[in-house]
Design a protein that fits this description.
By secondary structure, the protein is mainly alpha-helical. The protein contains three helices and no strands. The chain has one domain.
């Protein structure tokens, strides 16, 4: 596993921690477990936050 892969693995774990206690959080966590980049993960969290504010 390369440095980049290790960083993404760590990011998945930490980003999933932020995806709790909101409507649809389970689905967001499932998607976060499959991200390929940090930017992709942050975009998923933004979508989850936006869906709660609507």
């Amino acid at each position: 596993m390369g440095e980049r892969d290790r960083g993404i693995y760590q990011s998945r774990k930490h980003l999933a921690w932020y995806a709790t206690d909101f409507l649809g959080a389970s689905q967001v966590r499932d998607q976060l477990s499959q991200i390929k980049s940090l930017e992709e993960g942050l975009a998923l969290l933004d979508q989850g936050i936006d869906s709660c504010q609507q």
